[in-house]
Amino acid sequence: MFSNMTPVVKGIIILNVVFYIGTVFIAPGLYDTFALHFFEDPRFQIWQPISHMFMHDSANFLHILMNMYVLAIFGPPLERWMGNNKFIFFYLSSGIGAYLLTTGIDYYEYITWTSEAIEAGATQAIVDQQLFGTASNPNFWGVMVGASGCTFGVLAGFAFLYPNVKLQILFIPFPIAAKWLIGAYFAYETIATLGITGVQDNIGHAAHVGGAIVGFMITWYWKRNSMDKYRWD
C-alpha cells in the first residue's frame, strides 16, 4: 500500500500525523486554536476552516487511523488521474464543502434557538453565554475536527471514476462494487444528517455529506470536461 502512495497523499498523511502529535502530546494548548469553532463563537479564528481538516479527536486514535487509511487506499488513484496540484484543490475543496454544510445547518439551529430564547425574554448576551460559555449545548460549544469531509470527497470521487471496482470489507464475505458500497455509506450519512436514524453520536454526518457532494461534483465536472486536457501536474 505505502509503496504505491502518491506524493500529495503521502504529504497530507504526514501533515495529519504532525498535527496530531503536536496538538495531543507536545502542545495540547494548541488543540483549541486549530480545531473549528462555530463562527459566532468568540474562539473562532479565520484559519480554522482549513486547520481543522488536519486535526483529529484527541481521545479516539481510531479517528485519525481510519481517515488516513481511507486516504491511503482511495487517494492515490484520484491523484494519478487529476495530477498533484489539482488533487490538493480537490481535497481542500471537499473539506470546505463539509464545513459549509455543517455550518449552514448549525447556523439555522442557532438562529432558531436564539429567536426563541429572545422571544422568551433572554438577552443576546445570555444566549451567547449559554451557547458558547458553557458545555450546555454541544452543537455549538463543541469543536469540529477531522479529515472526514475530505476523505468522503475522495470516496465519492473514487466511486464515480471507478464504479465497478470490487471492494472487500470486514464481516462481509463477498466483494461489493464501489458504487454500491460507497453509495450505501453516503445514503446512511444523509439519513443520519436528517436525524431519521434517531442515533445520538459525536459524528459529523453533515460534514461527510458535504464533503461527498463537493468531491462528486468536482470529479464529475472534470471528467465531463476532459481532465487530461486540464491536468495540473
Outline the biggest β-sheet.
2 strands, antiparallel
Oligomer: single chain
Strand order of the biggest β-sheet: 1-2
Task: Tell me the total number of β-strands.
Answer: 2
Structural description of this entry:
By secondary structure, the chain is mainly α. It has ten helices and two strands; from the N terminus they run ααααααααββαα. It has a two-stranded antiparallel ribbon with strand order 1-2. The protein is globular and about 60 Å long. It starts with 6 loop residues before the first helix and ends in a 9-residue tail after the last helix.
Question: Descriptors for this entry?
Answer:
single chain, mainly alpha, two-stranded antiparallel sheet, 64% helix
SSE topology:
Elements: H1 7-26, H2 31-34, H3 48-51, H4 61-82, H5 84-119, H6 124-132, H7 138-141, H8 148-161, E1 166-167, E2 176-177, H9 178-193, H10 205-224
Antiparallel strand pairs: 1-2
In short:
With 233 residues, this protein is mostly helical. It has ten helices and two strands.
